[in-house]
Amino acid sequence: MPVPRLRSLLLALLGVSAWWLVYRSLEPLGRWLAFRLLGLAPGSRLGAAVAFFAYEAPKVLLLLVVVVFGVGVVRSFFTPERTRAVLAGRRESVGNVLAALLGVVTPFCSCSAVPLFIGFVTTGVPLGVTFSFLISAPMVNEIALVLLFGLFGWKVAALYAGTGLIIATVAGWIIGRLKLERWVEPWVYATATGPAAGGSDAPLAWGDRFEFGREAVKDIVGRVWPFVLAGIAVGAAIHGYVPQDFMASIMGKGAWWSVPLAVLIGVPMYSNAAGIIPIVQALLEKGAALGTVLAFMMSVIGLSLPETIILRKVLTLPLIATFVGVVAAGILVVGYVFNIVL
């Protein structure tokens, strides 16, 4: 094996080992910080809140770095042009499923909603298939998926991924069946699109793909860490100060109105997946029902108010209302089904 490659492999193994050792020591470190260094009483509300924050903040950030790096490497295999080429000409139903799956792994953020939408519809991707992609990309967020796996296990992560993909597929199919193309702003179909300048499908070396991962960490973690800490702070407050019976009474299975209330609260909120997960964790620990919490999380991530405002540039109000209504109905169904079954 060449010396540079061997050195890179050894550094990678050393980095993974150091990451694992730090990750494993976070819980005792958090308890030491809260109860020894700060002298807080273990049974006090403030002590519980501080210990939660001291443990969860570095834990989520460490998970986030690993997840974002891995996702950055995976995304180096996809470009918006390649995604459009895969979806163009696909018939509905098959196209809806494929678009929902591609939405999980392809680059997407609220600021790219408009150019992606224009590029898709003007290159022959049906409107319903386009919406399956636009719903899946933020809702079935790969960062949220891996964080849920790390915090709650594979069952909760699988429930989140499966229900999100079903909502994206079915909602896109319904929108496609309604034939709402007339409600797209007329100038969109007059816009010609082509491959991005300088775009290339030439295969990348693994060193370049790892560089994509490092740049993703710098970009994404650098932008979201304040939201992560804010979400953990809210979760810590819920963990330390909110009584168990209170959350169970307003977000438990017995309150039929808890699911629509969770959606109504979640829609106008602005957060990202990494910032909402600690709040989800605290709500579940305090007795909130899984279906209600999933509905809340999906409404925050999948019906983002900033994304809806940005999409107004290319969609008329009736189409936006239809989009929000169909997705919200799917989220409500998911919340009620899981509250009944689980």
Please describe what this structure looks like:
With 342 residues, the chain is mainly α. It is 75% helix and 0% strand. It has 17 helices and no strands. Helix 7 packs antiparallel against helix 9 and helix 7 crosses helix 15. The chain is globular and about 65 Å long.
Structural topology:
Elements: H1 3-24, H2 26-37, H3 45-75, H4 80-87, H5 94-105, H6 113-121, H7 127-139, H8 142-152, H9 154-177, H10 186-189, H11 206-241, H12 244-251, H13 258-266, H14 273-285, H15 290-302, H16 305-311, H17 317-341
Q: Keywords for this structure?
A:
single chain; 17 helices; 342 residues; mainly alpha
Roughly what is the average pLDDT, rounded to an integer? 78
SSE order, one letter for each helix or strand: HHHHHHHHHHHHHHHHH
Tally of individual helices: 17
Largest sheet: none
Into which percentage range does the β-strand content fall? under 5%
Structural class determined from secondary elements: mainly alpha
Helix content, binned percent: over 70%
Shape: globular
Number of strands: 0
Low-confidence stretches: 193-200
Gyration radius over CA: 22 Å
Ends distance: 52 Å
